[in-house]
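Dear H.,

Thanks for agreeing to be a second pair of eyes. The structure we're designing against is below in token form, covering all 375 positions.
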């Protein structure tokens, strides 16, 4: 069974409400739908994480396509490694990972469909019957955030996740209100790299009375040293997110004992196999993994769910993102957590059924809406 063609479609995924985080406010996310066809007529779907404009991701996929077309679908490790080492990616290893993960996802979808089994079974089998997801608090004002947090707690989420890094006064006000709204449920705070080391130490000292479950990536993008300095000082659990992308980064975080937990997506790691390697390194170091989410649809949420089912050292309160969208790209399965949990997926492959009308609308939105391309 050989790869016959790779089709790419840039899409804009509009958020239901403005997505506030330390960096900025987002109104939509860019992804590229990857559809891989085989010579015997199977089609696998995947999703590459992009940024506006997504033409760079489309071009990168076009650039690696000749390495894949005509090759056996089964040779995932060999093909993806070869593509990652392609000259055009040498200066941008993360870009390669974000691009290639969508293509690799589609290959796993094909293998699952060919075998008649869900992907998690091909990746070692389930170590749990369900994966726990966090309730992602949305809103701008303190009242909006507290009300949404109350709703999420009422819906049964055991872990509630709040973006901070929006200024000291707002952070303290929002965290106090959300803590009060959710009672003794676990509360995670994510400033998304907003603070210097000194600011992080100051802010975490002020936020610790709200008993955060952990503080996620308080300091600079890619700095393991800053993360370690904060962790050694504050006495509150610290999660590494934007300081860790590849399995090699996971090794370095673990070697330096720079974080208590690692937040990672298959897009950051470079695919489902690479995520598995990263998780194995962390597992050997006694460090748990938490599934991370970029702005993605149910295609990626589904792929990540297979990883969640098969990863031994997984935390509770993993990230899921499709619920933030005006419209998901998939008609099935239903990925709405029950009490924060999603169970086994038994359809072959990733198990996703595309909603072709929704895909068409997302493609039109991408073509039409110039605002997103320059945000
Ligand atoms: Mg984060």
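And this is the sequence the design step returned. I haven't edited it by hand at all.
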């Amino acid at each position: 069974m050989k790869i016959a063609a790779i089709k790419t479609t840039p899409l804009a995924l509009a958020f239901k409400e403005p997505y506030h985080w330390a960096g900025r406010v987002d109104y939509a996310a860019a992804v590229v739908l990857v559809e891989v066809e085989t010579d015997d007529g199977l089609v696998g779907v995947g999703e590459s994480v992009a940024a506006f404009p997504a033409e760079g991701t489309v071009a990168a996929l076009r650039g690696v396509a000749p390495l894949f077309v005509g090759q056996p679908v089964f040779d995932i490790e060999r093909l993806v490694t070869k593509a990652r080492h392609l000259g055009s990616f040498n200066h941008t290893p993360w870009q390669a990972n974000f691009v290639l993960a969508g293509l690799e996802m589609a290959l796993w979808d094909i293998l699952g469909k060919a075998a008649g089994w869900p992907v998690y079974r091909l990746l070692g089998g389930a170590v749990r019957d369900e994966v726990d997801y966090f309730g992602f608090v949305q809103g701008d004002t303190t009242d909006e955030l507290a009300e949404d947090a109350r709703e999420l707690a009422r819906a049964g989420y055991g872990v509630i996740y709040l973006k901070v890094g929006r200024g000291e006064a707002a952070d303290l006000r929002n965290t106090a209100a959300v803590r009060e709204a959710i009672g003794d449920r676990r509360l995670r705070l994510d400033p998304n790299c907003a603070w210097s080391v000194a600011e992080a130490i100051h802010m975490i000292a002020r936020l610790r009375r709200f008993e955060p479950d952990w503080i996620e990536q308080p300091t600079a993008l890619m700095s393991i040293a800053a993360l370690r300095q904060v962790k050694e000082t504050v006495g509150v659990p610290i999660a590494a997110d934007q300081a860790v992308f590849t399995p090699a980064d996971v090794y370095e975080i673990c070697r330096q004992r720079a974080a208590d937990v690692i937040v990672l997506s298959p897009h950051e790691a470079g695919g489902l196999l690479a995520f598995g390697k990263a998780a194995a390194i962390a597992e050997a170091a006694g460090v748990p993994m938490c599934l991370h989410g970029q702005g993605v649809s149910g295609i990626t949420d589904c792929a990540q769910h297979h990883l969640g089912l098969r990863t031994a050292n997984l935390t509770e309160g993993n990230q899921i993102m499709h619920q933030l969208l005006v419209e998901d790209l998939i008609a099935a399965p239903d990925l709405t957590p029950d009490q924060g949990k999603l169970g086994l997926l038994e359809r072959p492959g990733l198990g996703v059924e595309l909603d072709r009308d929704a895909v068409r609308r997302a493609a039109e939105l991408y073509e039409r809406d110039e605002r997103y391309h320059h945000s």
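Two observations from my side: The pocket of magnesium ion is lined by residues 190, 192, 216-217, 241, 263 (CB under 6 Å). Residues 80 and 100 are 7 Å apart (CA to CA).

Warmly,
E.
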